[in-house]
Amino acid sequence: MITLRPGVRAGVTDWAIAVGVAATLLVTGLSGQHSASGLDPLGYALLTAGGLALAARRRAPVPVLAVTGLCAVGYQAAGFDVPAVAYLFAVYAAVRAGHRTLTVVASVAVLACLPLAALASGLPAGEAFAQARGALEIAWLVAAGAAGEALRQAERRADEAERTREETARRRADEERLHIARELHDSLTHQISIIKVQAEVAVHVARKRGEKVPEALLAIQEAGREATRELRATLEALRDDDTAPPRGLDHVTELVERARATGLDATLTIEGQRPDVPAAVDRTVYRIVQESLTNIARHAAAGTASVRIDCRPNALAIRIDDDGKAAPGAAPVPGVGLLGMRERVTALGGRLRAEPRGEGGFTVQAELPVEQTS
Fold it and tell me: Is the entire prediction scored with pTM above 0.70?
């Protein structure tokens, strides 16, 4: 059994309708009354072309509307009293595609040209207007347009409902992940705090007795402190929601000043006029700068760092450079912080680069698109 893909099935259907309409028009033209003249071959060709053009009505509704309208006027001028069935199909397709105004303009033009075409075929004025009226009844034209518009509205509502379902499912999934992360954080913080306290007590007792403190015990103590700091920073990020004051581009200055307080020579440069950015983009800028400066302070052994934010019409570009110990050409180790930054940027449709600089040190570059509202 052969199964056709949806696009293939639609194409087969379009061609079947086009051939059927062309055959109907041609048979009507052959069997109907028309003025015998040397234009008969042209009339038959226009009847066939008008029907076959419908095969492309999904892909190019406006050109098909124009072709079928011209064919209808053409075979009327050639003396063929045949209804403009192909044009009605084209009206339906154009309205369904959303070209309502253009379809109305084209239909008024066709309605005006049909009597002139009938007059050009040699008919008396009364018969010419009667033939033009029969070729394209206004009621059928309105019905075709209304049917196309109704189907277009139904398809748009279906698309909107599907998009709403996807957004709701994604939001629920994000809320569940956030809940799990918070639960995991609280559990780990409790256990690590116990380990840290026990290690500190053991170190204190050993030193009080004048005994040598084992290196492993000191390592456990330091690891406990570092893990506690990491978890506290993670909790701050997790709780950056509606229950906490939002942190964004306006608070980047505080991050740079905090970095200076640790002894790092940090500078901040903001270029351009800041656009109105979505809250998600605003928070992501803050998190990128925060994570980058934290990594510089902990791992880079750098003396200077620069933060540059370029406000462009359709994007925000962020760049953080340091003169740390990263060697040119060395592959960066993707830690949790770097992966988190990349996920945030990718989710917003942006780009992120994090790699050693050619002159030494490390660079983080991100570009976040900013949607313009009209």
Answer: no
